[in-house]
Amino acid sequence: MLFNPVFNNGPGQYGYNRVGKRFMEFSPAHHVTKDAPPTIVFLGDSDRLIPVSVVKDFEADMKKAGVRCDTHIYPKAEHGFFNKEPFFTPTLTETDKFLASLGWIKGEPTLKSPVQK
User: CA distances (Å), 56 to each of 12, 63, 104, in order?
Assistant: First the structure.
């Protein structure tokens, strides 16, 4: 479960100035294999740190490797958007559904939005 993740630390991407050529040691985008775990990604399209294109490239690489990668791009959401409503409940509900679809948890999501009665 990746919430506005930094997973490409390569040249021109977030964090490269901090890690330099060592990015190859840990940058997830540079280590996608058929053995990667199923992944769900949440990103806001107004995130100033992680461009939507980075998520789309990661998703394509994961699918090419035969690994499930579900992405959820939220309009007008910035970095850290999922920490509060109106995004908190929907992202956790999608996470719950994802984990259930893998058989890792059972049952329907029970989290209710604060605006629901």
Answer: 16, 11, 26
User: Which residues, at least 6 apart from 100, have a Cβ–Cβ distance to it below 8 Å?
Assistant: 106, 107, 108, 109
Give pLDDT, residue 43.
96
- Give residue-wise pLDDT tens across range 58-98: 999 999 999 999 999 999 999 999 999 999 999 999 999 99
According to CATH, what is the number of the domain 2-101? 3.40.50.1820
Domain limits, the chain: 2-101
5: part of which helix (H) or strand (E)? none
Q: Residue 42's closest CA among 85, 99, 80, 14?
A: 80
